[in-house]
Amino acid sequence: MTSSESLRAGYSTRMEIPLPVQIEYKSALSAMKTSSGKQFAPAFALAPMLRGRVRAFTLVEMLIVMIIILIALGALIPAVTSLSKSSGRQAATNNLIGAIEQTRAEAIKSGQPTYVVFPTTLSSTDPNLLQRYSYHSYAIFEDDPLNPGTPKQLSGWKTLPTGVSLRSAISSWSLASFQFTPVGSAQSFPFLKFNANGEVEAPVAPPANVLLGIFEGYVASNGSEVITGAKDGSGNPLASEYLSVSRITGRAEPTAAPTP
Questions:
Q1: What is the distance between the alpha carbons of residues 154 and 125, in angstroms, rounded to a whole number?
Q2: Which of 5, 14, 18, 160 is the most buried (most CB within 10 A)?
Q3: CA 210 → CA 143, 196, 247, distances in Å?
Q4: Model pLDDT, residue 175
C-alpha cells in the first residue's frame, strides 16, 4: 500500500482541510466580525457627536464672567480695607500701652521723672515730617541728673500705623521742651510724666485719669481733625480707640469712648 493509499477518504497528500471544518471556521469568523462591529461601532458613532459639543467660550460669556469678578472684588475691597484700618487702630493701642508701661517701669527703676512725649505742632513745613510725626508718633525721655532741665531720650521716635493718629485734644496737655532729633532742635510737646512711684504727675491733677484717643484720620496744620472713617451724628469719629491712664497706678487700659 502506498502512502497515498494509506490516507483516509476525503484527504489528500496536500493536507486539504475537510469541507465540514471549513464551513465551521467560516461561521465562527463571521460571528466574530459581527460581535466586533457591535462592540466598537457605538464608540466610533459617538465621536462626531462629542466633537460637536466641545467649543470655546464666546466673547459675551467671557465679559459676563469678568463683570461678575469685578463686582465680587468691589464688594471685597472695602471689607479688607476696613479690617486693615481696624487692625491699625488696635496695633496703635497695643503699642501705646506698651510704651506707657515701659515709661512707668523706668521711672520706678531709676527714681527719675520719666516722660512719654507726643509731637504735635512742629516748627517745620516739611510735609513728610508733618505726616510722619505730627500727632502720629511718640518717644520716651528721662530727667538727667547730670544735665538738669534737659531730659535725655531713652527710645527712638515710634510712629503709629498708617491711617491712624492721636486725637487733637492732646494738644491741650501740659507742654515742655524736648530735643526733637528729626529737625535737630528742641520743641515744645505734650507729655505724660511718671514719678518714682509710677504715678502720673502730668498732665492731670488728682484724682483725674488721662484719656488718650486714637482715630482714623489726621490732624491738619491748623489743629483740626480730618476724619477719614465713619462719623456719628455729632461729627465725631466712629472708628476710634481710647486709653485711660490711671493717675494713681500709672497703668493704661482700653476704655469706652467719652460721651460727646
A1: 27
A2: 160
A3: 21, 18, 7
A4: 94
pLDDT of residue 86: 73
Task: Kindly tell me the sign of the dihedral angle through the C-alpha atoms of 94, 98, 103, 107.
Answer: positive
Residue 40 CB neighbour total at 10 angstroms: 10
pLDDT value of position 2: 45
The reported pLDDT for the residue numbered 60 is: 81
The residue whose grid cell reads 460581535 is 35
Residue with the three cell numbers 464688594: 75
| 233 contact partners, CB below 8 Å, separation of at least 6 | none
What does the pLDDT read at residue 229?
Answer: 84
159-199 pLDDT tens trace? 999 999 999 999 999 999 999 999 889 999 999 999 999 99
- Which residues, including other chains, have CB under 8 Å from residue 113's CB and lie 6 or more apart? 107, 142, 143, 193, 194, 195, 196, 201
Owner of C-alpha cell 480707640: 241
Give CA–CA dist 224/211, Å, rounded. Answer: 18
Of 33-37, 220-224, 247-251, least confident by mean pLDDT is 33-37
Q: State residue 43's pLDDT score.
A: 47
H or E stretch at 241: strand 240-245
Amino acid, single-letter form, for residue 71? I
What domains lie within the chain, and their CATH numbers?
70-255 (3.55.40.10)
pLDDT higher at 236 or 22: 236
Among 237, 203, 214, 240, residue whose Cα is nearest residue 135: 214
If residue 191 lies in a helix (H) or strand (E), which one and from where to where?
A: strand 185-194
